[in-house]
């Protein structure tokens, strides 16, 4: 039963307590507001009249100016939990005051103006407060599933409040409903305090909270800067402003029509019925429709629904007018605006700068809406005696067209705004352009001179552009021989003397790329590019697997510089599924830069194949195992390969122009902060479309339950892993099959691995299992398993752990080192070697950083 409810409402396991508690909070807030609005609107129209609504529209900004100013200051100085409690206490006091005043002064018109302004203030204030509060506890992906359900609770609360007024309007006086509202607010306070104690708020970004500007002045400066630098913020504000202009016009239109010929009690009953009907509609939309709409069409496309609805409603008023048009305007305001537009606005606010999202929302909703009321009120006060309802409807049609145009702009700006929001607070240490020094020609010449004189600092600053060689033309062969014998200093001379004819030098350089110091490695890459041997591309890609990210970027740029003759080799490298993803990534970057048309021709097929294989890997890795270390490592390796496949897929889509900056996207997607991850997923969904995103999301968030793997399943997975091309999977598969197959069967299954290019680590593993090599020390698989259990390294990828295992020694080194145990043997890894491996594996570096300082960095 619970599973059916989860599928129906798209709720994950364990979310119901949090959902129900926040939903009940929204229900109580809106039930009180529903009672107040149903009774208050009827009282105002009966005692004052719809023709005075423009005055309310004009006075609302003055009230909201005071409210927003106080609320914004308090939001900076106090927590959101304290603001909720304070607001509820104010509702209690305000309700009791209105109960006393309305009961004693009777029909004083001034009091009904105050009542209407009080309702307008809390209509905006409670809406802003609830969603600011709820937004602090959910990321955007959870919001897209759950916020419609919260809106459904709110709609149900409003409907319940309206029905109470509808059923009891003949028996309870208007001021009695104000006292009832105060009682509901008082009953909500314990629930609000419980929410703050039980649930943990989510930070807006990975940046430390202490880095955010404090104080009113700093917040106002950030707000002003946001309007100056963020076109999305301006477009969103314009959208809300024009929406509110049309909403005020719609309220004036339907109020003018519906008040004719009705008493206060009849109006109260009518508005109670209309509010109840509209909120039942809202309830259905929020529960069953909105989250499916936004999942299918996306946040930025749903933004068109209300503008089109208003355009059609004012068109109906213009063409026919009357009672039907008034009901349509009421439902456009209280149904479509509430159930669809307000829900979507909650999601649109996620793309504004995260540091000022709450104060910005408070200012926009607290001042933008009243300013729209002021303009609408001033206009209606002037036009009410000069224009009829049909002419006002024509103005509404024009405003509807303008709103559609603004939403078109908002739709275009939304993906870039989400990307910018992910980028804030993220430091791209991997971009060499941020750290590479630049010199004037005179400074460069001076540095070259100092470097040739032996100045180490000058040599370091010049990097790969420096060459200390003074060799002559006849020394090339001698230098190649010296380099082949391990003399890395020979590279300096080769950098000066080698030409495009020295293609025999490229394989040697490629083989030694991982052995050169960093400055010489860049020099070797530049030399390979200068020689320009495209036939060596497969070997270059293979050698790049062990290099650091900055070196791989340099190789991609170098390969792109080889020209069109490199395209066939790059295409072959990109499509070779036995290659490591880092190698295929280099080929993809080089191909996209060299020939986007060729890259784009491969894109759809590559993405589809990667997603299909990743889904199969995830489903296989979802099985539970209680077996050997080799079995655990195999299942973990499959999960990691699926994750790497997704990362590679997103990289391809980014190169294809469908997604924003890939490095930023991956860092955000792997962040420990749910809001940052949610923003990354939203950027992906906005870029690739619904169908492709569903395939990606099914891999990122698999829904199936883990099942126990049978022996047949394990053997089949191990046999498939033999052909994976990843030595960790292959080594684990060898150990698994050795334990489960008879000797003849094992020999037959593993015979296809024996070839000239078989990795040395697998060769030793196979010889050990066959009893052809005796070695008392732990094998590489045992070392990787031991490292995967050490707290400082356990969260790193197996690929990083494998490189660490390669640096393990059976004797204590003469420098600082870490100590571990594997298969009953001691091993040590020098700290210098750990740092060198970490420089090539960002995941390992970030895991080590987390262990050192305990903060939640992205990884």
TrEMBL record:
The chain crosses the membrane at residues 20-40, 55-76, 83-102, 114-134, 146-165, 171-192, 232-250, 270-290, 302-319, 363-383, 395-414. InterPro entries: ARM-like, ARM-type_fold, MFS_trans_sf. Keywords: Membrane, Transmembrane, Transmembrane helix. SUPFAM superfamilies: ARM repeat, MFS general substrate transporter. Signal peptide: none annotated. The keyword ATP-binding does not apply. This is MFS transporter.
């Amino acid at each position: 039963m619970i599973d059916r409810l989860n599928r129906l409402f798209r709720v994950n396991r364990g979310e119901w307590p949090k959902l129900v508690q926040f939903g009940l909070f929204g229900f109580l807030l809106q039930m009180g507001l529903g009672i107040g609005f149903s009774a208050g609107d009827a009282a105002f129209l009966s005692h004052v009249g719809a023709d005075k609504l423009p005055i309310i529209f004009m006075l609302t900004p003055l009230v909201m100016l005071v409210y927003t100013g106080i609320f914004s200051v308090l939001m900076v100085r106090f927590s959101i939990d304290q603001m909720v409690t304070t607001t509820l206490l104010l509702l209690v006091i305000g309700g009791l005051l209105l109960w006393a005043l309305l009961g004693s002064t009777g029909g004083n018109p001034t009091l009904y103006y105050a009542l209407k302004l009080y309702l307008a203030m809390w209509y905006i204030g409670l809406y802003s407060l609830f969603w600011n509060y709820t937004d602090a506890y959910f990321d955007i992906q959870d919001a897209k599933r759950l916020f419609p359900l919260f809106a459904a609770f709110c709609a149900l609360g409003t409907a319940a409040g309206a029905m109470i007024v509808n059923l009891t309007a003949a028996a309870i006086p208007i001021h009695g409903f104000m006292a009832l509202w105060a009682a509901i607010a008082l009953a909500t306070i314990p629930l609000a305090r419980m929410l703050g104690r039980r649930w943990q708020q989510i930070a807006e970004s990975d940046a430390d909270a202490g880095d955010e500007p404090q104080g009113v002045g700093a917040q106002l400066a950030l707000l002003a800067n946001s309007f100056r630098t963020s076109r999305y913020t301006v477009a969103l504000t314009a959208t809300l402003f024009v929406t509110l202009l049309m909403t005020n016009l719609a309220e004036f239109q339907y109020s003018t029509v519906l008040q004719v010929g009705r008493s206060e009690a009849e109006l109260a009953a009518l508005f109670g019925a209309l509010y109840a009907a509209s909120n039942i509609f809202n309830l259905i939309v929020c529960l069953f429709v909105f989250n499916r709409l936004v999942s299918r069409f996306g946040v930025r496309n749903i933004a068109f629904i209300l503008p089109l609805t208003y355009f059609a409603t004012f068109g109906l008023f213009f063409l026919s007018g009357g009672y039907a048009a008034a009901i349509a305007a009421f439902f456009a305001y209280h149904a479509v605006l509430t159930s669809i537009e307000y829900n979507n606005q909650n999601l649109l606010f996620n793309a504004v700068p995260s540091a000022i999202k709450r104060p910005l929302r408070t200012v926009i909703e607290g001042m933008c809406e009243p300013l729209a009321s002021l303009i609408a009120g001033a206009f209606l006060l002037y036009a009410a005696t000069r224009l009829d309802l049909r002419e006002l409807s024509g103005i509404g049609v024009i405003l509807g067209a303008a709103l559609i145009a603004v939403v078109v702009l908002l739709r275009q700006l939304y993906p870039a705004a989400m990307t910018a929001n992910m980028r804030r607070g993220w430091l791209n240490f991997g971009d060499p352009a941020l750290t590479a020094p630049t010199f004037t020609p005179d400074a460069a010449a001076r540095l070259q001179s100092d470097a040739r004189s032996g100045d180490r600092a000058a040599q370091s600053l010049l990097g790969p552009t420096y060459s200390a060689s003074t060799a002559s033309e006849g020394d090339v062969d001698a230098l190649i021989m010296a380099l082949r014998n391990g003399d890395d200093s020979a590279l300096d001379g080769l950098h000066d003397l080698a030409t495009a004819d020295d293609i025999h030098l490229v394989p040697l350089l490629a083989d030694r790329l991982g052995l050169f110091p960093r400055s010489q490695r860049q020099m070797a890459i530049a030399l390979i590019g200068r020689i320009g041997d495209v036939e060596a591309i497969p070997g270059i890609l293979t050698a790049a697997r062990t290099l650091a990210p900055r070196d791989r970027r340099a190789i991609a740029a170098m390969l792109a510089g080889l020209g069109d003759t490199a395209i066939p080799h790059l295409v072959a490298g990109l499509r070779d599924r036995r290659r490591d993803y880092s190698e295929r990534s280099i080929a993809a970057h080089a191909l996209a830069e060299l020939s986007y048309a060729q890259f784009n021709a491969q894109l759809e097929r590559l993405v589809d194949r990667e997603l299909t294989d990743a889904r199969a890997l995830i489903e296989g890795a979802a099985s539970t195992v209680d077996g050997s270390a080799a079995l655990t490592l195999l299942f973990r390796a499959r999960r990691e390969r699926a994750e790497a496949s997704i990362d590679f897929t997103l990289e391809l889509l980014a190169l294809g122009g469908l997604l924003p900056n890939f490095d930023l996207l991956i860092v955000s997607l792997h962040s420990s902060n749910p809001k940052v991850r949610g923003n990354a997923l939203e950027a992906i969904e906005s870029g690739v479309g619904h169908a492709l995103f569903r395939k990606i999301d099914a891999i990122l968030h698999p829904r199936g339950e883990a099942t126990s793997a049978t022996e047949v399943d394990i053997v089949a997975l191990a046999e498939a892993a033999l052909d994976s091309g990843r030595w960790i999977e292959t080594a684990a598969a060898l150990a698994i099959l050795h334990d489960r197959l008879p000797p003849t069967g094992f020999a037959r299954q593993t015979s296809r691995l024996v070839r000239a290019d078989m990795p040395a680590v697998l060769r030793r593993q196979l010889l050990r299992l066959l009893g052809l090599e005796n070695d008392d020390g732990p094998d590489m698989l045992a070392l990787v398993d031991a490292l995967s259990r050490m707290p400082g390294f356990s969260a790193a990828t197996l690929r990083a752990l494998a490189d660490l295992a390669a640096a393990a020694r059976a004797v204590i080194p003469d420098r600082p080192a870490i100590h571990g145990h594997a298969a009953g043997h001691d091993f040590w890894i020098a700290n210098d070697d750990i740092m060198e491996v970490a420089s090539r594996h960002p995941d390992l570096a970030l895991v080590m950083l987390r262990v050192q300082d305990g903060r939640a960095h992205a990884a």
